[in-house]
Structure formats: C-alpha cells, structure tokens
Amino acid sequence: xxxxxxxxxLSQSAVDFIDEPYLFSLLEQPAQAGEVRDIIAKSLxxxxxxxxxxxxxxxxQQPDLWEEVFDxxxxxxxxxxxxxxxxxxxxxxxxxxxxxxxxxxxxxxxxNVVRRTLSPDDIESQxxxxxxxxxxxxxxxxxxxxxxxxxxxxxxxxRVYAVKRPRANIRRVNINAAPLDHxxxxxxxxxxxxxxxxxxxxxxxxxxxKVHPRxxxxxxxxxxxxxxxxxxxxxxxxxxxxxxxxxxxxxxxVLGLVSHAWHLQRHYNVGPHTISFPRLRRAAGVTxxxxxxVSDEDFKRLIAVLRLSVPYTGLILTAREPAELRRAVMExxxxxxxxxxxxxxxxxxxxxxxxxxxREQFELGDLxxxxxxxxxxxxxxxxxxxxxxxxxxxxxxxxxxxxxxPGFIQRFCTPNALSTLMEYLVDYASRETYETGVRLIxxxxxxxxxxPRKTALIERLRRIRETEERDLYF
Length: 474
Ligand code: SAM
Ligand code: SF4
Fold this sequence. Notes:
CATH superfamily of the largest domain: Aldolase class I
Mean pLDDT: 93
CATH architecture of the largest domain: Alpha-Beta Barrel
Radius of gyration: 21 Å
Bound molecules: S-adenosylmethionine, iron/sulfur cluster
Largest sheet: 8 strands, parallel, barrel
CATH topology of the largest domain: TIM Barrel
Shape: globular
Order of helices and strands: HHHHEHEHEEEHEHHHEHEHEHEHHEHHHH
Number of strands: 11
C-alpha cells in the first residue's frame, strides 16, 4: 500500500496513555532516602521499575543519593550487559520532508537545506565506504515524504543488504523513519529490517503541538504515539522509542518514555528493544529555545535513571554528543553508540572532514573516525562489538533470551563480541588499534571459564586471523 492511499487504522491498544496531571503529580513530592534505596535495590535485582518508582528517582534532591543512583546504574550495566558496547552508523537516505518540526533543518519551511535522496547507486557507494571502514550495522534515516513509501524504504533495505565487499556485508539494517500503517510495517519487516525506531520527540501535548504544526502529518500526536503498537501488530517486534531532550522538562520526558515502555510490555508482552535520548543540537536555520536545555549533569542523571528503570532495554548514545561527554556518560548504562558518523545525505563520500550545516539535519558533536572510537573504547575497558547473532537467529522480541537465560552473556554475547572485534582488527584496524585489541581479547579470554565453548571460540579467533572465514557466531 502506498503512502498516499494508506489506512489510518490505529492499533488495537490505541489510547493516549500519557496522563499529564498524573505524571506531574508524581514529580511533586521529593523522594525520601529510604524509599530511594528500596527502589535502587529493586532495580539491582533486575526488575523493571514502575512509573511512580521512576518518578521517585527523578525527584532526588540530595547529591549523595544521586551518587548512589550512579553507582547502581554502573553496576546494573555491568551485570546485565557486561562491558560490551555495540557499534553502528547512520545512513541518511533522504532529506525531503513534508513536516515542519521547528527544531529540524529538514523541515519543509527551510529553503536553505539541500534536498536530496540517494539513488540506488548512491546507496551502494555509501555502503561500500562504510563496509570498508569496518561497519556491519546501519540505521537508515529518512524524512517524512510521499516518496519515502514503505516500498521505497523496503527497496533501500534490500539494496543495502545486497552490497558485498571482500569478506564483508551489512548484517543488520535498522530504520528511523516516519510512522507507518500496519501494511507499511509488514512491508518493511519483509525486507529484513532489525529495529524500527520512532521518537515521540516530546510526550508533553502542548509542547508537541507547538513544535509540530497541526496541519502536518507529524502534528497528529496519537498517530505517532501509537505507531510502534501498529508495528508490533504487523510483526515488527523489535522497536526503538526515544525523546528529543530539550523541548520540555527532562524529568517529564523520562516518565513519558517509561510509560511508553510499559504500554508496549503490557499490550504486546515485549518492551522496546532500545531507548534513544538525543539532546537538541544546533541546526541550519533553527533558533534554539534554551528554556528546557538539559545540562550535562542532568543528562547523566537521565541516563542513570533510565538504566535503572528499564534494565533490559538497550540505551543508545549518539554522536550528537561531544567525544569527551560520550566517554564520561557511557558507564551509566549505555549499550550502543554510533561511530565514524556523517549525517549529510551522501556525506560518507562527499563532504571531507568538515561538517556542512546546510546539508545535515543538525550538527554532530563527535566526528572521530571509527578506528579512533574503537581504540578509545578498548583503552577504557570496553569490548567494541558488531554482533548481530540474536537478530539473525530469530532471538528477538518475546524470544529474546539474552537476559532471561542465566549465563547467556558469557556463553553467547562475549564470544560473539570478541569474534566480531577480531574481524575488525584483522580487516580494518590501524596498527595501534590492532595491538590494543589483541591485548584486550587475550585479557577477556583469560576471564572466560575453561570448557568446550572457550576452546571453540579460540579456534574461531584463529580461523578469523589466519583464513578468509568471517561471520562466525554462536
Ligand atoms: N523524519 C523522521 C522523524 O522525524 O521521525 C525520522 C528521522 S529524523 C531525521 C531523526 C530524529 O532526529 C528525530 O526523530 C529527532 O528526534 C532528531 N532531531 C531532529 N532535529 C534535531 C536537532 N536539531 N538536534 C538533535 N536531534 C534532532
Ligand atoms: Fe522531517 Fe523528521 Fe525533520 Fe521533522 S524531524 S522535519 S519529520 S526529518
């Protein structure tokens, strides 16, 4: 079904579940130390927090209690995710847009932005460039425009998967695009997408209406809020939610995100796979309203609270943030980052080292190449991972076992992270990164218990080093 004739059928669970007076009332009472510690203890036992419990953490006033939250977030991240960080890159497919979001350079009323959509050949050259740097996971990004129909998006996905380089191809394609109807989600799912990501931007109705004019498609709050429920009903059980921080009070937005996660969990038995929390950035022709600017300290708090509230949901930190800040907040619960990113349409091959504001949706804060980011992660004790095993073995949604099975991380995630890292080191890394990586792999192997799994992993790592064999996973 094309964009023009699409249905306006909402999901079976469609309801505006953001009860503003209730959420505001939760934020009124400052938390007591005793209740905060009980909530932290619940979270450390890996139970998701309710919305009122999350609100309690958000109302903490005492700095020492915040320190306890940070410590718990660090610990929970280590317990649930180990020290892996998954890496991906965005690929902007098109900057055409019929919406008029006041914060975005792609909005239709901005005459100065370059409007462009990648052709199939352009997609191929961008993907070749990304593969030659070592990327294996991409997110395709689109404006909202009749050209970007579900069929068009599905064609782009197939095109990306079809690009082959020596020993390499893209193994997982995620999407960030407009909300679709049921048929549209089924169409993109059939093309083999991983996660479908849609950010509500702000859960606050009045602010939503202020920044998304009503006469635009995105002006319909419920159509967007309900989108990932339709995705679930259409068979996409791997979805990502997000809020654009800086449009409204950050505490309220965290409650919006957690309410959304619970809504999906309750109705579809699966919470979101990821949560994104971009902060507003400078963008061409955009005058930023600073009223709700989120400070670095509050940014750290919101990441830690999200970590504790949704222990099993991946948290994505993007290159909107500057390198040093990314490094500093990573430990509070981030599980995925993008690296070596360019967000100009065609930017991977065309724009050189400088950012070209008229060609991008907003300004990036971290332009370091992938090799440098990987080296830094390893120096800081993380295992950079390109693993895509669960998604390719059908371990998604309700069947996603990463956390449900004791020892899963040690048996599957760490070995897969190490073999994808070894591929990167052998095929793409600079000398310095290679040496840092080989040391890290040796250290990590020493931590794994002896047994058949470890023996098999050591043999696989050898095959990757000495032969052309790639893409070996448990
Ligand atoms: N057009 C689709 C949409 O709006 O959902 C998809 C992609 S949009 C290109 C990706 C996300 O970038 C938006 O959801 C928004 O949260 C974020 N974004 C837009 N303008 C931004 C800005 N100035 N700074 C930071 N993030 C921004
Ligand atoms: Fe279009 Fe998305 Fe930008 Fe809004 S945020 S103007 S929908 S590209």
